Amino acid sequence: MKRVGNLFDIVFSKNNFYLAYLDARKGKRKKRACFEFEKNLGAELDALYQEIHNGTYLPQPYFKFVVYEPKERIIHAPAFKDIVVQHAIYRIVYSIFNKTFISTSFACRVGYGTHKASDYTQKALRQYDADLYTLKLDIRKFFYSINRNILRSLIERKIKDKRLVDVMMLFTVMDSPIGIPIGNLLSQIYALIYLNPLDHFVKRTLKIKHYVRYVDDFILFGLTRDECLKYRIQIVEFIRDKLKLELSKSTIQKVKRGINFVGYRTWKTKRFIRKYSLYKFKKMVKKGKLESIASLLGHAKRTNSLFYMLKILKGAKMPKIYRYKKVVDEFTTYSLVEPDYNLLETDSKITELCNLEGETYVSVPDDITLPEQPKQIVLSEIILTDGLKEQIKKTSVHVQLINQRVKDRIAEQYSEADEIKALRKENVDKVAFDKYNAFVNGCCTWGYEEKAKLGLEDGIIELTDVVA
Predict the structure, then answer these.
(1) Rounded Cα gap, residues 436 and 418, in angstroms
(2) pLDDT of residue 11
(3) What is the pLDDT of residues 333-388, one digit of tens each?
(4) How far is CA 357 from the centre of its chain?
(5) How many CB atoms lie within 10 A of CB 313?
(6) What backbone torsions phi and psi does residue 6 show, to the nearest 5 degrees?
(7) Are residues 102 and 214 in contact, defined by beta-carbon separation less than 8 angstroms?
């Protein structure tokens, strides 16, 4: 592997320090620390230059605080002048290491990110039969477990400049003997460098065709169950022996069950945001925090959850689900009294969903007010649990008709299912197969929206594909 030397004077030149300052101040110009640094910009940059070059530079103590997103994490916030130094390093070394990373490592890289990671995940799922498996793995306390000696050796594989590496390693120092601080700009690229050997092991040694990683979460696609068990053992041994890491958890499940990754729950034909993201969205709507609302809508823009979120944002109420018992006496059958639809300024109608254990479940749109009911009819509004919701969907003739309509639409356009499977397996005509997937996704989205109108979808429920 070719090493790059003589970088110290390039990284810590006065010109690069100024450009690093411009990068560091983005989004921080209203911060007091940035303002104080700018007041004496020339003197501050010159002082940094002198400290670095005479070997007296040391980062200032971090400001530490805790966040819960949703896990507890200790964040180490560096002083502004240390952020400038990190940007100076990052500007030069990023491109050197970026060339060594595989194309399916999506975290902390220019032009990558969670959306592209999720897109790749869905494309990978589409390549394999529904009964094959995915293997999802997660590193235990990754940032807190990084061995700094191993990290240094990995950095030195590409950088042949001891003075530069010495400065880079200043930003890995913590109170504990292992680990690196969460909060430093350089910690992002250190994380990429540290797990890069794992990526190449999976691709080159294990020969896995479809593989994706985002920080410390990674997935192998299209395996048999026996292969999942075998590869998991090999990966555990590799990260233990080479990187001094251990797994936190692993998940083996069939392709048809989808995958939970980078904030999305993804299947071949649909994608939802996580429940926690939806909870945060509802909370931000109540508080009127526009920036957070816009961010979460952007997160959900290519998911089936967007329909539900927009309804929340518009203030529209979701349909209510009621249950009641029909009463039969000697002369009369008492059931729900519906309004006179001819008098209503709406096309909505009440839908009888199903009958479970002698009780009838109905969906009442938010723009319909129920008329007064006979005293024999006792209506109870219910909050659906996931289990009850699945029961209703399995027994409701109306839902079965929606699902059948989705299948019929697809069959009308693509009657040769075996031909589509051949396209997927042989990758003969990618354009035709992508067109097929887009059509199927559109049909499934229509079915989802129809069920959402009945109050049976909320944008986050874990669904089985309606199309095999």
Answers:
(1) 13
(2) 96
(3) 888 888 888 887 777 888 899 988 888 999 988 778 888 888 888 888 887 777 88
(4) 39
(5) 12
(6) 55, 45
(7) no
The C-alpha atoms of residue 269 and residue 254 are separated, in whole angstroms, by 15
Distance CA 21, CA 15 (A): 10
The string over 294-308, giving b where at least 16 C-beta atoms fall within 10 Å of a residue's C-beta and e elsewhere, is eebeebbeebbbbbb
Low-confidence ranges of the chain (pLDDT < 50): 459-468
The DSSP H or E segment spanning 353 is strand 351-356
> Phi, psi at residue 271, to the nearest 5°?
-150, 135
pTM for the structure as a whole: 0.71
- Give the pLDDT confidence score for residue 418 in this predicted structure: 53
Mutual angle of helices 80-98 and 14-24, in 10-degree steps: 100
pLDDT in tens, 92-139: 999 999 999 999 999 999 999 999 999 999 999 999 999 999 999 999
Residue with tokens 């680990």: 179
Alpha-carbon distance 226 to 283, whole Å?
A: 44
- CB contact at 8 A, 146 and 133: no
The answer to whether 298 touches 118, Cβ cutoff 8 Å, is no
Burial of 6 by CB count in 10 Å (0-12 exposed, 13-18 middle, 19+ buried)?
exposed
The label of the residue with tokens 């896990």 reads 71
Helices H / strands E in the chain, number of each: 18, 17
Give me the amino acid identity at 389: K
Cβ contact 269:409 at 8 Å = no
Phi, psi dihedral angles at 146 (to 5 degrees): -65, 125
DSSP conformational letter for 301: T
What confidence tens digit (pLDDT) does each residue in 125-174 have? 999 999 999 999 999 999 999 999 999 999 999 999 999 999 999 999 99
Asked if residue 203 lies in contact with residue 98, where contact means CB atoms within 8 angstroms, the answer is: no
